[in-house]
Amino acid sequence: MLNAVIYARYSSDNQWEESIDAQLRICRRHSNHDNAPPLMFIIVNVKKKI
After folding, report:
1. pTM of the model
2. DSSP states along 1-50
């Protein structure tokens, strides 16, 4: 059986906090469809100011 690692990233002021939830939802759907349950979730919140 395969396992998945889900990496969700929030990196822009143009993104909403809900962006992470949407990314996780889509990744979970794909991993369930591929019969590869998530083993780990990596969530990164990085906002860069230039």
Report:
1. 0.65
2. ---EEEEEEE--TTS-THHHHHHHHHHHHHHHHTT--EEEEEEEE-----
